[in-house]
Amino acid sequence: MPTRRFHGKTTTGCFACKARHVKCDEARPECKNCRRRKEECRFPGGDASSTTPPGNSSNGSSFAAPAVPSSHSFDGLDLALMHHYSTVTSLHLFPSDGGAHVWQGIVPAKAQLPSGVILQHGMLALSALELACHYTASGDITQATMYRARGLQHQQAGIMLFRVQLASEDSADGNAAFIFSLMLIILAFSSAHSATTKPSLDDILDVFALMRGPKALWQMHNDPTNGQLIETMSPERNKPSPFVPEQETELSRALGSLQLDEICSAAVGILIAAWTRFDVERQDVRGIALLPAVCSDEFREQIRQRKPDAMVVLVNYANLVSRFRARWWVGPWDDFILEAIEGASPGAVERALGRNNDVKSEMSAT
């Protein structure tokens, strides 16, 4: 009887093989599996050129991420971060009755599945960047820098697995990818708080692009858990909304009277829907995502070209975002947006606010 050959489990294989739980031959610069599947092959320690996630430019800015750690190597700091996620971070992501249940219970449970390593990285990144935000606010830059570096490491490691799972037809992989796409949005917002430079207008457009991800993945993988996750973004349903129809009418008149071009007028319509349909006053954070998620490519291009009408819409979007400052991962993002607009097009914020005030004056006169 022939002797059966046993293969020891590799701990130094590429990220793609680890994500698929297959043996990696560790050939450099490209293993056999990745070469056969025509996928990008990357190893722990950065043997291949690193890929920068949206919102983390590689041009030397403070958004650049450190080297990617091994996807299965967790140390004592990571254990402390996971404890912090379970006891603190998961409770403060979304202000809803079911938020803690989903993010403290369901998501960690899914992270224990074979497809859940990506979620482990996401949870650790969220925990680390929340602590980075905390220490930045308290002025402890040393601690903030340490936690930020670890958070970006886990974000980058998760992104590597994310790309593999996007190509997978496994529904479990699709569900994990959907959850991670939500995490990426929070990470993009929160990482800016501890950065040494603030987001540029192009960085903000990258965040806009991230907000399209969950919608696309929802359509690809219609898992019931995805619906539960979306519901956690909604406010408590037993609290009455302070938003009244008269406010909706006034808001529609104010924004609708800005005399913008057709593309930007459509974007304004989305903004009005964000204020009303998703109840911004009651902290339904889906209101933040609506404009970036469904605005047209033409509108995004107008922002990129610094068109005056697009800047007016973006200033009003910053006003919407300001209502969510209480969320730790949002914070002063309205200021970041206004500063980015001003940096890209000096005087644009003042001109946009002037047009808003002119409309308000006309409304008062009538």
TrEMBL record:
CDD domains: GAL4. It comes from the Eukaryota. The keyword Nucleus applies. Residues 13-43 form the Zn(2)-C6 fungal-type domain. This is Zn(2)-C6 fungal-type domain-containing protein. GO terms for molecular function: DNA-binding transcription activator activity, RNA polymerase II-specific; zinc ion binding. Gene3D superfamilies: Zn(2)-C6 fungal-type DNA-binding domain.
